[in-house]
Every structure is written in C-alpha cells, then in structure tokens.
Amino acid sequence: SPTWLPCGRHRLDLSYPRVMGILNVTPDSFSDGGHHIAVDDALRHAERMLAEGAAIIDVGGESTRPGSQPVTTQQELDRVAPVVERLVCELDALVSVDTSNPDVMRQAAALGAGMINDVRALQREGALEAALGTGLPVCLMHMQGEPQDMQQAPRYDEPIEEAVHGFLAARVAACEAAGLRRERLLIDPGFGFGKTVEHNLRLLKRMERLAELELPLLVGLSRKSLIGKVLGRPVEERLSGGLALASLAVERGARILRVHDVGPVMDAVNMTWAVLREGCEHD
Ligand SMILES: Cn1cnc2c(O)nc(N)nc21
User: Fold this and answer.
1) CA-CA distance, 81 to 236, in Å (whole number)?
2) Which residues lie with the beta carbon below 6 Å from any ligand 1 atom?
3) Separation CA 280–CA 283 (nearest Å)
4) Cα Rg of the chain, angstroms
5) Residue 275 exposed, middle or buried by CB count within 10 Å (0-12, 13-18, 19+)
6) For 125-146, what is each residue's pLDDT tens digit?
7) What are the start-end ranges of the H helices in 33-120?
8) Is residue 48 annotated as part of the catalytic site, yes or no?
9) pLDDT for 53-95, tens place per residue?
10) Helix (H, G, I), strand (E, B) or coil at 233
C-alpha cells in the first residue's frame, strides 16, 4: 500500500525512494556558495532539478556546513521567503524549508512550503510549537554540537548508531508529547554533523538500526567530506562517490535523498530500487 505523506497541498508518495534537490540561497553554502543568491538563478536551478526528477526542493537560508556562522532571522527570511513564494506560485513545487528558526518556519508555511527540514530537530526555543502550528511534516535530524564547532573533535560514549537512534527516538517522543503526530515525522542521521569519517561510514553501514523507529528516513550524503576523505576528491569531483553512497543508503532504508546532482542520483536510486523491489509483488 502506498505510503503518502501529506505535505501542505501536495501528497508525497513514499512507497518508493524520492530525491530532494538542494537549493542553497546563502552566499557561503559549501560547494555552490554564492551562485544562487539571485532569486532568478535559484528559480532556474530549481526548475532544472524538478525537470530531472526531484520530488522536493529544499530551500535553506542559513549555511550549516562546518564552521559556518549563524545568520539573523531577518537575513534568513530575506533569502528564503522570495524563493519559496516563487517556487510555489510559479512552479507549484513541493518546497521543504531548511531552517531551525520558528519565524522562518511560519513564514515559509504561509507562503506554501510543504515540509520543514530542521537540522536541529526542533530543539530551538519555540521551534516545536511553530512546527506544530504549521501542520506540515518535519524532518528531525541528528547533529552533535553546532556547525561552528561540531567537527572539532566529534566523540561518542557509545556506538554512533546507538547515539543517533537514542537522540532521534527522544526527539520523536518529545514531538509526540507536544501533539505533533508521528505520521508527520521523518528522521535523518545527519551525516557530517558532529561526526568523524569513521562515524559516518559506520552510521551508513548500520543505518538499518534506525528502521526500528518506523519513520521515513531522509539522508544527505551529496558531496560531503566523507567522500573527499575516502577518495581524496575535491567537492566538485564527488559525484561518483556520492552515487555509490546513494545506492547503499536506499538499500539500507533511505526513502528521501537530499542531493545536488538530481539527474544522476535519480538513475542510481531507480536502478537500486528496481533490484530491491524485484519479486516483491509476487511474494
Ligand atoms: C541542510 N542539510 C545539510 N545536510 C543535511 C542532511 O544530511 N540532512 C538534512 N535533513 N538536512 C541537511
């Protein structure tokens, strides 16, 4: 039976893996920093990702790469609002807003965003209440520390998959306790957010541990430094490595992949899915 996720006026079919295209509207986002600050550029980029098969466009106004600096609410709103509005009005896109800020969540929802993507898992003051009020689905991601310091010396007193599982289980429970229904939650291990390369590799290898939470799994591996460190590739040469990770992530339960290169990942994901679903209908 299809698993549909209500996302505002869109319904997202999660009975097969979907691709979320990254639209950074920040001057310092890693890998495509500064290119998309102009709204027109952003729209053209989004249009191309939709044409390549993206089911969702993720719009972020505050870079969360390691070492990035926080932005003010107004700066974030100025960057995000115009882009969300035009994505919704002109492209009728399913837009995810990548923010931890309650005001940005409310404004983006009012402009027609269909999902909230919070790398801080609604831990900021007022974030849980704001998300609840929008009625939108929320992706809860694991991060240890903050972008400014999370990569200085990541360490855990337990296996990484246990730490991430425990954190996400606690955040899901907190959301449910506040009245945010489980059916509106997605979870994400947060690759690269307070984790060493070894932590990231082990987390992907053992990602089925998160399947126990029985919530849609969103992962972001595209162009990340674990690819760079294993293959010795600069950020603009990490597509092949990223395709290998995307296929492994789908095989280990990921249902939404947050990526830069939508077209190539669509093919890798669809090939992987063709193998995984083979024979299911006859089981
Ligand atoms: C904004 N952002 C950057 N990396 C991400 C990841 O891996 N997951 C999610 N949900 N958001 C991310």
Assistant:
1) 28
2) 60, 64, 98, 117, 119, 139, 141, 188, 190-191, 218, 220, 258
3) 5
4) 17
5) exposed
6) 999 999 999 999 999 999 999 9
7) 39-51, 73-91, 102-110
8) no
9) 999 999 999 999 999 889 999 999 999 999 999 999 999 999 9
10) coil
